[in-house]
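hi!! sorry for the late reply, been swamped w classes. u asked for the two structures so here they r. pasted raw, havent cleaned anything up. first the sequence of the first protein and right below it the tokens
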Amino acid sequence: MPTFTAADGTRLAYHLRGTGDPLAVLPGGPMRASAYLADLGGLTADRRLALLDLRGTGDSAVPADPATYRCDRMVDDVEVWRTHMGLEHMDLLAHSAGAALALLYAARHPHRIRRLVLVTPNPSPLGMRATPEDRLAAARLRADEPWFARAHPVFRSWLTDGADFDEVFLPFFYGRWDDTARAHADAEPGQTNDEAGERYFAEGAFTPDATRTALAALTAPVLVHAGEVDGGPRPDLARRAARVFPAAEVAVQPGAGHFPWLDDPRWFRERVAAFLRAPTDAVPPPAG
């Protein structure tokens, strides 16, 4: 397990899986250890995944200053990581809340991005975010599921009344509520740093107007990958986020929820791998 040292002295770890050209990967959660990403539906057959454990998660150390868990404060961690891996430009994939960090990184270091993949992204840095209405509309697509009648009222109460999180509505986050999904969901509590997750989106993390302006100049191609039945983001929100970029495409995976590589690994792998293999005429501007 390779490690490197962040600018503030925190030791950070990442995990290498697969063969081929490197693909840097940022996990979501927020602040969930990268283990939940596994091999991203077999993407390791095409690329060598470098999966970062964000500070205070997985095998990375807890920082001395918990304020550094705020999303924008970790952009420097990603840049030090890139330098450590010896990559002049990198292909970067980020999932869910990790996409917020990837967006801030791309805005600050556009010349370091070769291709950017945002999987079921949280677009908060763009001034966009899934609403309770979005999530409930997506939930209603699952009305024929055997667990829906029990889960839907609890889910609605959590979204609209501030009720406590309840495991009964976890199926809404997966396109298929099978043994694989259950095992994936069961692992989450031991993989997530709750304190860090509460600080990740803290006030001051985002300046949407400045970020949108910076990303409008990003020359790298971008793939925004959404799940058909995911509520955060729904496909329409993913399309709106994609419009920020000059060279973006949107993929909507049929029947997929928030973890599309679990719902249909082959569909996910082939779509993402095709994007990463496609030639690009985009030339990153010089550093500096």
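now the second protein. again sequence first, tokens right under
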Amino acid sequence: MSLAILPAEPDLTDALPAQPSPERLKALALRRSSSAQALTQPGPTPEEQAAILRVGARVPDHGKLTPWRFIVIPPAAKTALVEQLKTIAAGRPDAETAKAKLAKLAAPPFTVVVVSQPARDHKIPAWEQELSAGAVCMNLLHAADALGYGGSWITDWYAYDADAVKLLGLEDGERVAGFVHVGTQAAAPLERARPDLGDVVSYWAG
């Protein structure tokens, strides 16, 4: 897909009125995640990767704190990371299961770790800052979808294991919001059950 349609970074004085987009609404109404293990080559080009990250960063951010950062894991580095995680997995009580789950990390050609790094003791609650990191993960999926790729946002044990996150270079107070995987879909994802809006929507009556 040509990236010529991507606009230049706007100036801070640029206003953007709301613009209806039936195509965007349709895409959002049908969006679904791919299986991480079903994401294969070709992955996004370097230019597409940059576009995905750029779109991913355009999220609500109360206080303009940028309480998150990206760690891109190139294919060769990912191979080394998976091997090191296998060693950690071997020492876990669920060793075989933990090792098997690494297939979801190994398969996709492009992986971004979204790291939540909320500013502590700030007037903006940490919870709101963490929600911003979640919005980043969702935006990355939207960007991947718009470029014609499949995407998967997952965590799994290596997002929470203390030794595993040390491998990623996380610092005190940082947490993995998600591993966002992008690649070509080996199989188109099927629809899954969605909540009945009648079960999750209420109207405040005062």
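hope this helps!! also noticed smth abt the second:
The chain has one domain: 34-187.
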